[in-house]
Design brief:
Number of domains: 1
Strand content: 5-15%
Number of helices: 15
CATH architecture: 3-Layer(aba) Sandwich
Largest sheet: 5 strands, parallel
Number of strands: 5
Low-confidence stretches: none
Radius of gyration: 20 Å
Shape: globular
Strand order of the largest sheet: 2-3-1-4-5
Length: 338
């Protein structure tokens, strides 16, 4: 797969930003912070998809470039919509995304690009249709640790039950993809990466057809890592290197009720991926009262992380500005047409 794109797939709060920066430190690979083009735009740009070519290409490119301009992390290049439209293949958001990433690759002087938009797990067949030799990495993490990490993130559900439902759904999708493509999908457990960084990265590089470079483990010394860490508390570990003690954080932190409920909801996927759990988890509580508890817990958790973001995140208002722009986008699509 020489020079083919690389995709990091999975669930947020599973170490994908860590892996993004590790790969970005490779001399041949460029992995900019993802604006999540397909995930954020596809549900909102339906009418543009019905336009004939080349109007569709240009309209999608204009919307995508507008999103990049509003990205909550600096993008390495200011894209030109006309150029992106001309290079988009196919004439959809996957093609536009690829053209944008190729522009970033050329700006960085690298041979190939990677994309850390984990949500592309749900679009893997489209990625492979465009690039049959693409390198696919499925990054997974213990859902109990994902739940603990999500409590402090502005990008994820806060309540463990909602985290569990999302994790189970996305790992089930990953298992289906693995069944379809086999070894084409490289499974990497976050815990294994922490325990044996060099060994796991050597295996990953071999899968991608790249030589392992020791400098990949010094990613945190780069200005790019320091810039990411300074933008948001959700990314603060970006400048700290590989945290070997970051596995098993849920022990003594996750309440017994939340743990039992999470394990029950994620049992099949945890077993398939080798995560030990209570062999006889109690069925999760259900009913109106529990749904109200979860909803209230989610609102409280969201308020807490937003308050912290307001006080400390440099990209807090950029994130809310992007949200407002995305909310209004379906009513403003005409402005992006030729």
């Amino acid at each position: 797969m020489p020079d083919a794109p690389i995709y990091i797939l999975g669930t947020e709060r599973s170490g994908s930003n860590l892996l993004r920066q590790i790969l970005d430190a490779h001399s041949r690979i460029c992995v900019p912070h993802p604006p999540h083009l397909v995930h954020l735009l596809e549900p909102r740009v339906g009418p543009l998809l019905d336009l004939p070519e080349p109007e569709r290409r240009l309209a999608l490119a204009r919307v995508a470039c507008a999103l990049v301009e509003r990205h909550i992390h600096p993008w390495p290049v200011k894209p030109d919509p006309a150029q992106i439209a001309a290079e988009a293949r196919p004439a959809d958001l996957v093609g536009v995304m690829a053209a944008l990433y190729d522009a970033a690759r050329l700006q960085a002087g690298k041979a190939r690009w990677g994309n850390k938009s984990t949500f592309l797990l749900h679009h893997a067949d489209r990625l492979l249709a465009r690039d049959p030799d693409a390198g696919l990495i499925w990054l997974v993490r213990d859902p109990r640790d994902v739940a603990v990490s999500s409590r402090n993130s502005v990008f994820n559900p806060c309540h463990p039950r909602r985290v569990a439902a999302l994790w189970a759904r996305q790992q089930a999708e990953g298992l289906r993809l693995q069944a379809r493509v086999g070894d084409r999908l490289h499974l990497l457990r976050y815990e294994d990466l922490l325990a044996d960084p060099e060994g796991r990265l050597r295996a990953l590089c071999a899968h991608l057809g790249e030589a392992y470079e020791p400098g990949m483990l010094r990613f945190f010394e780069r200005d790019a890592a320091k810039q990411t860490a300074a933008l948001s508390a959700s990314w603060q570990n970006a400048g700290r290197g590989i945290l070997s003690g970051n596995a098993g954080r849920w022990v003594g932190v996750l309440a017994d009720r939340d743990r039992a409920e999470l394990e029950a909801l994620c049992a099949a996927e945890m077993d398939a991926l080798g995560y030990a759990r209570d062999p006889e988890p109690q069925p999760p509580a259900d009913g109106p009262l529990r749904r109200v508890e979860v909803a209230v817990g989610e609102v409280r958790g969201r308020a807490r992380v937003e308050w912290r973001s307001l006080r400390g995140d440099r990209n807090h208002w950029a994130r809310w500005g992007r949200r407002a722009w995305l909310s209004a986008l379906p009513w403003r699509l005409r402005t992006y047409q030729a």
